[in-house]
Every structure is written in structure tokens, then in C-alpha cells.
């Protein structure tokens, strides 16, 4: 007796989007259903490590695809772990993935978007089963979980609308069969050659045999009639059915590497670069690591699990083994196949294993070496080889996508901090684009310059126009412009580069050392002495806002600016912490004034001294991207002076 169930509301909405938005990229359903079948076999292999009886009488795992032209059905079967009746209801009627809503918004947001690009979203969000409704007006799933009795099988049926039916059946074979009842306009998928072509494109790398009925040419018995291809009862394997990473690099083509990446990542673009190595020594493993060309939509989603596929002696263990790479390399995709880890390894054991730490360190160094090579050949030399020239511009592309997350490594990976520092790129007062490395900066430092200067701000425009840069511009001293939220935190873990200290121009008193001549120093000292009475009055007027008020030499055109003491949290970071709902250290900035500016000179003897002092402070705050505590009072003071 069958039971009718309603789809979860999100599934019903999802099915509508799938059938309407992805119709021009129909073939992806083969990739997704074959991938699901392969995963089911991997899960059986893993569970059978502790219970070999789950194999029953069929230890050879495989995926089979059958075509019935008369019934207009395409069936994708596996002899993997299978499903119980409750699992069929849970897995096929609801979606537990946290990214489902994001998936649907992305899928429906732009109907003009490239269809193939939209198609890849299905696999990324883990809802690949529903892609079958792109070509089918009805899907029947028959399954039995390994270990259950034949009469405990289940049949799940749906037309892809608002509900589905579930009934008990007797199924001798464990595993799952997905039967697609094809629409009239999906006739091409009843062609065996077409299905084989799609498997070759998307699923050739799958280590399990994917089998189809063999076809043979048969001449017509009637004279004058042409022969035809006839399906036999013999099954043949239509993919390579060998783990790509176990093959020698010389035997793998560029296209095969790219196809494998697209299969494991569900990315429609080819990877930017990859590294394939067999590591031998105290810990033996094979690594195949890919750097994507584009950042995934959920790179900054804290709930998203990342990591590599983990195999032990070619047995699939885990899909997202986060312990195999540090967090700041979470964008890397690929496979690690260990010869030393136990087959029953768990996520908890991964965190504690010495072998895993060795693999993690090896993977990290391999990725950094790959990035260093890309950076080295980003602008190839005139005599560079053709291979090196093919890497031109790749590091710039990588950095535009992943530079921000790479900076996290400064605070997370002490052992590789120096290597990471060399990979960072910034804009500067000589370049609006993030192309300046710390090594580039140091190579063109002025004679007598003793620090690498930088400034942090919300935007490039705010950084470029900061009053704190005025003396540096006047003297032609390059300053790095840092405009990402992670910059301030990251640089708190990087005090120097190649022996040269990094100095924020917004911290401490400006000290240009040998770059400031004696006449300038003397003039500054005299100005500070002459200005003492005014400074004293400013300190009193601003005692609730500023820790100190002092004369500065860093300003040329502006009347004032705000700085903090060395070692304190900058005003920029304090604002970011507050915006994130975190508590910022309770400290006051220092107001530095330019004694040569007309507004500052006007302070001496002014009847509006208190208002001018408040305006001076608030304008300095505005210039660095902050807001006055009382914007209305600021406007009122300015208006009063304008009348």
C-alpha cells in the first residue's frame, strides 16, 4: 500500500526552478545521478569496513545505466548502500542543506545568466537528485538498504510537483535504481552514444566501473533494408574506472585533469592550476590539489565545510576532510590518498593523528609552492619558456579572487608566515591596483628609509586622500594602501618583512629619520614651542575626546589628523570591531595639528575657540572615515560659523 507525502516547501520551490531555469543545460542530470550512485557505493565500502556482511553476495561495486526506448525510460542503478523507506522519505522529500535558499536565489536571480554556469549550482548545493526532473516528468526510485531483508525494499515515485508516494516492495538486490520517465523533448537521452559521450565528459574519472549494455551491428535479414545497432545482454564498462590520482602524471592529459576537477568540485570553469605528487618517506600519500579560477559563492560562509576528499589505500573515507589543509587554504579542492592512515579513521582522529599533521604540512607547502611559481611567472621574462608564458597573469587572477583569504594565514600559520608575506599584494601611492608586493616596495625604498609604510582605510579613495599621507607624498615616499577588513588584523601578526619593520602612518609620532633634514626638525621644534599656549587650550577643550593634542610635521595641506599610540588598536580597526558587534578597546586618539594651516592659526585669540576646536577634531575624524559622536552638533557649529 502506497503512502502519499508532501514535499518540504523549499523542495517544491526548488523543483520549479530546476525544471524552468536549467532546461537549456539538461545533460548535467547524468553527471549528478552518476555521482550520487558512486557516492552510495563509497558509503557502502566505508560501512563494510566494520561489517563485511553488508556486501551480501555482490562484493564488486558498480554503476549501471540502462535504456528502454519503448518505455522511454533511462535507469541509473548502483549496488551501493541503498535506502530504507524512512531514508527515502527523509533524503528525497526534504533538504537539510543550509545553502538551499541561497541556491534558489542564485538560480532564479538572473534568467539571462549562462545556463551551464547555473547548472553547476546544483552539485555545489548538494541537491543533484532533483536535476532528474530537467528531463523527466516522473521519477521512480527503487531501493533497499544493505543489510535489510529483500521485502524491506522501497519504491519512491513523484511527478516533481507538490507530493510523492512511497510504498514497500520486494527487492532482491541491495542499492538504488533511479528510473527517469523521459519527456518527449528529451528523446536524445535514449541514445546510448549520447549517454556515453556525457559520461566521458563528466564522469570518466570515477573509480567505479560505469556499465551499459553492449551494442553490436546487426545486418537486416530483409533484402534492401539497412542494418541497425542491437543491444545485447552483455554489460561493458564505458569509463576508465581507475582513480586518476593513482596514474602517472605523464599518462594524464590536461583535459583529464580539468575534467576530474570539474567532477569533484562541480565547477563549470577549468581550474587555474594544479599539483599532482606522490609523497614518500615516514608518511606516504598521493596528493592532487587544485586552485580554482573563481572563488566559490560560500567562501565566507562560516557554516560551510571545506576540505579535501580523503581516501585510504583507494578506499573512500571522507568527502570534506578539513584537517588536511589550514583554514586559509579552504578554497583548494582535490584528493589525498594515504597509505598509512587506518581505514576506520574518524574526524576526531584526524585532528590528533601525527600522520595527518604531516599530510597537512605537506599539502600546505605544496600549495604555497604552486602559488609561488604562479607569482614568479605572472609577468614572464622575455626569454621565458612557452610553459612559463602560459602562466602569465594567472597569479593576478588568483589574487583578485583569493588574496583576502590568503591574508588570514599571517595569523594562523606561523611556520609559513614569511612565505605568505611574499605572496601578498597591495595597492600603493604609486599603483591603484593590488599589484605591489612587499619585496617590490622594499626594492624601491628611498635611501635612508628605515620602514615600510602603510595605511588602512575603508576604501581606496579614503586611503589615497588621507591627511596622514601628506608629508609622504611631499617627499615622494611610497605608502601601501590597505583597504580590506582583514588587513589590520593580519598585519598585527607581521611586524617586519625581510628585516625591515612595517609602520602604520596612522600610529605614533611621524619619524622619517634620515629622510627629514635638520632644518625641518628645527622648524617643527620651534613651532611646538610657540604653539604651547594654544595646545594647552585645545587639550582642555577636547579632554573628553582626545588623549593628547600635539604639533605634527606629517601634515602639509590639512589642518589636523587623528593618530593612535604605537601598539594600540587603530581607529579603523576599532570601527570595524564595533560594526561587527564586538567590543573595541576603550581608548582616545591623539589630535595632531598643522601650525601652518590658516584654520589652526585662527584659533589663537578666537572668541569661537571651543567650537573651532570641536570642528577641528570632528573634521579629522571625518577625513579618516569616521563619524562625529553628535553629527547634529557638528552641523550646528559649522553653520554658526558660516553665518
Can you tell me the number of structural domains?
A: 4
Helix content: 25-40%
Broad structural category: alpha+beta
Any low-confidence stretches, pLDDT <50, length ≥5? 96-101, 107-126
Total number of helical segments? 23
Strand order, biggest sheet?
A: 1-6-5-4-7-3-2-8-9
Largest sheet: 9 strands, mixed
Instruction: Output the radius of gyration.
Output: 33 Å
Number of strands: 23
Which geometry do the CA atoms define? Answer: elongated
End-to-end Cα distance, whole Å, is 88 Å
In CATH, what is the class of the largest domain?
Alpha Beta
CATH topology of the largest domain: Heat Shock Protein 90
- What is the architecture of the largest domain at the second tier of CATH? 2-Layer Sandwich
Strand percentage lies at 15-25%
CATH superfamily of the largest domain: Histidine kinase-like ATPase, C-terminal domain
Structure description:
The chain is of the alpha+beta class. The chain folds into 4 domains: 227 residues, Histidine kinase-like ATPase, C-terminal domain (Heat Shock Protein 90), CATH 3.30.565.10; 134 residues, 2-Layer Sandwich (Ribosomal Protein S5, domain 2); 81 residues, Rossmann fold (3-Layer(aba) Sandwich), CATH 3.40.50.11260; 125 residues, Heat shock protein 90, C-terminal domain (Four Helix Bundle (Hemerythrin (Met), subunit A), Up-down Bundle), CATH 1.20.120. The strands form 4 sheets. Strands 1-6-5-4-7-3-2-8-9 form a 9-stranded mixed sheet, with helices on one face. The chain has a 6-stranded mixed sheet with strand order 16-15-18-17-20-19. The chain is elongated, with a radius of gyration of 33 Å. It starts with a strand and ends with a helix. About 4% of the residues have low confidence.
